[in-house]
Each structure stands twice: as C-alpha cells, then as structure tokens.
Design brief:
alpha+beta; 8-stranded mixed β-sheet; 4 helices; 16 strands; 31% strand
Length: 253
Amino acid sequence: MALRPVQVNMKAVDHSAVGRFWAEALGWGVYDGSGATYTGPGVTNDGPGSGFVWPDPVTVCVDVIGVPEPRTTTKNRVHLDLATTSAAHQAELVARLQALGATPVDVGQGEVPWTVLADPEGNEFCVLEPREMYRDTGPIAVVVVDCADPRAMARFWGEAVDWTLHEVTDDHAAFRSAKGVGPYLEFLRTPGVKTVPDRIHLDLLPYPGDDRAAEVARLRALGATDLDVGQGDVPWTCLADPEGHEFCVLAPS
C-alpha cells in the first residue's frame, strides 16, 4: 500500500481569480477535472497543458477551493517555491507575477537571493534563484512545509507517502517522487508553532485497487489524527500529521 501527493489544495474567497493567477503563474491551464475525485462549483483545477488528465504519475497540481472566510494575517506554514533557470528568468518571472497581481511580502527573510511574494489573496510563495537541483522539476520546485522537527516529519512522511527521502538533517528534510522527476517536498525547521488552520495543504491519493480505509488506518497508526474542518459527508478523509499540518486522503481514482 502507498499514497502519493497529487495536488496542492488552496483555499480562496475568490477561487476563480486565484485559480487563474496560479495557472498563469505556472504556465498551466485550468482543466475540467477529467478523472478527478471531485470537481464542481466552487473549485478551480490547475494543471499543465491542454488535455491534461488528473491524476498524473508525477505532477503535483493546484486545486483552489472557494471558502467564505478570508485569510488571516498569520503566515502560512505551507507554501510553494517556484523554479527559475537563470537570473534573467527569475527577474522576468517576478515582474510577470507582479503584473498578474502578486505583491512583495516581508516574512523576515532579510537579504536572500530569492524573492518572496504573495498571491492576490495573500498566500506567500517564493521565486527561487537558479539552483541546479531544481532544473528539472517543472515550474513548482518545492512544496515547503514549516515545522519544528524535520527528522520527525521525515519519519512520518517517509512512511505516509511513496516518495524517496533524499536528505534529512536537524534543519531540513527533502522528498521527491521515486521516479526522480517533478517537485520536491521539503520540511524546514522554522521558529514558531502552528496556531491556525493553513490555507494550503497536500492531498494524497491511493493507487487504483488500494483500500483508502486501510490507508487511513495506517496513517493513524503512524501518528496522524482525524480533523474536522466542517467538511461534512465527503469522499475524502481529513487528517493532520503529528505537528498538526492538515492533509487529505482522497478516494482512489
């Protein structure tokens, strides 16, 4: 049994506007959800290329869900890092994103070679300087999760998903698809603790033929806890990892 990260789930008051922003930011399109577990009113699905069918073996898509509550001023503990291939590309991408509605944001980063921006509803993300390890990831270099203990996160997520652990230290843990392509999932030691639900989380998907209930039971045994975010009767299960980061286990496609 195994689970794979298949999409980054974002909450937005105006899901259509935020979905369009991220589609333009990533050079993707808004797709019709063919093959998706759920699609309907209040959802914008972003994926690469026309005719894209979800789930893709390695692509982590963006799924923007409409909610009535605006974002708080608390920094998200999950964000995206975008890849660039040159200094000129980084500068061009930052300018293009600002023209699309992104704004510079100070999260205490100081003098760093990457640029920190926020999307039109204030969700932080970074445009990285060129880095060799991210040259073949696609537009999303990393899904970044702030945490207190990267080693503990590596132990939990290493069992939770079928991605390969590339590095783990006291300050950083990094996973990537076992196929060696697509974005990384990284856990960074960060001051502070989680105090409010995140606007961004990961959705995990079992493989066809796997038992979702058995997967959820396995995650609970690893230390995940059930989470009630008002989801009601839905075909997915909302959980939190041992540090409280929300994630969902979707129904197999």
